[in-house]
Specification:
five-stranded antiparallel β-sheet, 620 residues
Length: 620
């Protein structure tokens, strides 16, 4: 099911929204002329940013380090094409650490059809009072500022897209200026990344970057936030940390970063949490002016394992060819059939996923196909006429959700920041001979054409396996969620399990209307136990949580799931505007509620629930 596998990524980014008030002249400059600033493009040509050229001009402040900014590359190119010779377009890049030639190369990669100049000293940013990227400034033919703000309302927060783009603010402002009319909304809220500016640094401070902050970033952030990894920016240098300082404070204080959703329940492996002391340290550093301190206090650079984290796999499965992912549009879910060509049954004790392109691979989920259903779907996809308009091209197939058939089992998966691990001793996934592995990969887009060829490493048991890793589902039952209901509750308790078993993992699942979910264990002869609770559900960040200490489940135990949904206009994730009645179903625009458990048992056969009886007592 497609949305089941929408896990997020360890994208340690924040919400940056700069709201400018039209009455604040120093902030908005609306109605004023901008003093032109001369900057150079990659070819060394000088351009006057803010100069009146006899027709309207759009000046767009961007950064190639900001994922929100780069996501607008194609829409801006379309705007330039739409308005042709009637409007001048110019982009100002605020990346301080890149040369004009590097900026020019990036502009070509993102296919920007207008000049891009570098504002290394932020002279143009100061002249325009620009504080955030991406921000658009519209000057009329006389050089008077008529509009400043967002391009459209695609984002409600940084890296958090709205389900629909309903307002095209820059386009509306352009149409009004070209028609000789006043701009109806001259200032709009900007969502993106702050333009970093130097601030006074305290020479002597109790908390400094090299002594106190760098060790925390090494241990908690750099696994994802370093060159070539999934984080959209690096946090490996002092300048990196200063550039993202306010975000580091805001998102760690709110405990949204490092990304860890459970707020109640048992202890899990690989918990990504900062202690209260760590949070105070980061906040004090930011509030104190981000002092560098003594570089000699810095710990040695953290060494990360190159290649396969668990060593050389016994079997490497590689996607047949490169998958091309277009620069913009909705996220792409693609299924790839990976033949194992095994001549005998195997037990898999560990799985490792190596994305070919971490910039766009959001997560991967792996399934066992022993009936060649995936091959049939792939052949059917290949037989379809090519969609000439789509830039998404390559092997595999796409279905509305999931993998398009009922798989014979799963092999887990991968999400940003997730480290490969072995299953418990004497435990393994059963992989039948001749079976295929079907990998469902979730791609997100970064504003330019990208390619990926992911690999899967399988590690086989070297000794006999006595316990098969099995799945059990806790369903949350409902028929539909009424429109406008912002507190729709689901509460369901399962029948008793039929045999003793051991619980190793849990994975809650809802779609985009989900807000909260909680799972409780109800033993036959003891108090209830909270297994997991998430009070800030995120459709884009779902993962399997492995228990630090597996729990013995007695026969007769029940499981309870409680969930809450928001189908109102106040839910920015609502895929329907205005809200509509949402039924239970597999489509992303439908809703569902499931919790997937990973268990083992010493007894043969499947772990099951008791069959429902008419005279069965009602669950508590």
């Amino acid at each position: 099911m497609r949305s089941l596998y929408s896990l997020t990524l360890c994208l340690c980014v924040a919400t940056a929204a700069v709201e400018l008030r039209a009455g604040d002249a120093a902030a908005s400059n609306i109605g004023n002329k901008i003093t032109p600033v001369t900057l150079k493009d990659g070819a060394g040509k000088s351009l006057a940013v803010g100069e009146a050229k006899g027709k309207p001009t759009v000046v767009f402040f961007l950064s190639f380090d900001c994922p929100v900014s780069t996501s607008y590359s194609e829409p801006l190119a379309e705007l330039a094409k739409r308005y042709g010779d009637r409007v001048n377009f110019l982009a100002v890049c605020t990346n301080e650490d890149k040369t004009p030639r590097e900026i020019s190369k990036l502009a070509q990669e993102y296919q920007l059809p207008f000049p891009v100049v570098q504002d290394q000293r932020l002279a143009a940013a100061d002249a325009f009072h620009a504080a955030t990227v991406p921000e658009a400034f519209l000057l009329d033919a006389q050089g008077v500022l008529r509009y400043r703000g967002r391009i459209d309302n695609s984002y409600s927060a940084r890296l958090k897209r709205n389900a629909q783009t309903t307002k095209h603010d820059l386009r509306q402002a352009l149409d009004e200026v070209l028609a000789g009319k006043p701009v109806s909304q001259p200032v709009t809220q900007v969502v993106g990344c702050p333009i970093p500016r130097e601030s006074a640094k305290t020479a002597t401070a109790a908390v400094t970057y090299y002594h106190d902050v760098l060790p925390l970033l090494q241990e908690n952030c750099q696994q994802c936030h370093r060159a070539g990894e999934v984080g959209p920016f690096a946090l490996t240098t002092y300048r990196d940390a200063v550039n993202w300082a306010s975000d580091i404070k805001d998102y760690t204080q709110s405990r949204k970063m490092p990304p860890w959703k459970p707020n109640e329940g048992v202890k899990f492996h690989n918990e990504r949490r900062l202690s209260d002391k760590d949070l105070s340290t980061l906040a004090a550093w930011v509030d104190g002016g981000t002092p560098a301190g003594n570089p000699n206090d810095a710990p040695p650079p953290k060494q990360f394992t190159a290649g396969w984290q668990l060593g050389q796999p016994d079997l490497i499965l590689t996607v047949g060819d490169e998958m091309q992912v277009g620069p913009t549009g909705r996220d792409l879910f693609r299924c790839f059939v990976l033949p194992t060509n095994l001549t005998e049954d195997k037990f898999v004790t560990a799985v490792e996923v190596r994305p070919g392109n971490p910039r766009v691979v959001h997560h991967a989920l792996l399934f066992i196909d022993a009936t060649a259903q995936g091959r049939k779907l792939e052949a059917k996809e290949k037989a379809k006429p090519a969609d000439e308009k789509s830039l998404d091209r390559g092997p595999g197939y796409s279905v509305s959700m999931g993998v398009g058939f009922l798989p014979q089992g799963g092999l887990g998966g991968w999400a940003p920041g997730q480290i490969g691990r072995y299953l418990p001793e004497n435990t393994g996934y059963h992989l039948p001979k001749g079976a295929d592995v079907v990998a469902q990969i979730h791609y997100h887009r970064d504003g330019k054409l990208e390619k990926d060829r992911t690999q899967i490493g399988l590690y086989f048991a070297k000794t006999p396996i006595s316990k098969r890793f099995q799945g059990l589902v806790i369903p949350g039952r409902f028929l539909f969620i009424p429109s406008g209901n912002d507190h729709f509750k689901v509460d369901n308790t399962t029948p008793p399990v039929t045999q003793d078993c051991v619980l190793h993992s849990v994975m809650p699942h809802m779609h985009m209307l989900g807000r909260e979910i909680k799972v409780t264990i109800i033993p036959p002869d003891g108090p209830k136990q909270s297994l997991i609770a998430i009070n800030d559900w995120d459709y884009s960040w779902q993962e399997t949580y492995f228990l630090e200490k597996p729990i013995a489940i007695k026969a007769g135990t029940r499981f309870q799931v409680e969930a809450r949904y928001d189908n109102s206009v106040n839910n920015p994730n609502n895929p329907s505007s205005p809200p509509r009645l949402v039924k239970f179903g597999e489509q992303t625009t439908d809703e569902m509620c499931f919790v997937f458990l990973g268990l083992t048992s010493d007894k043969p056969g499947r772990i099951r629930y008791e069959a429902a009886r008419r005279d069965a007592p009602k669950p508590p």
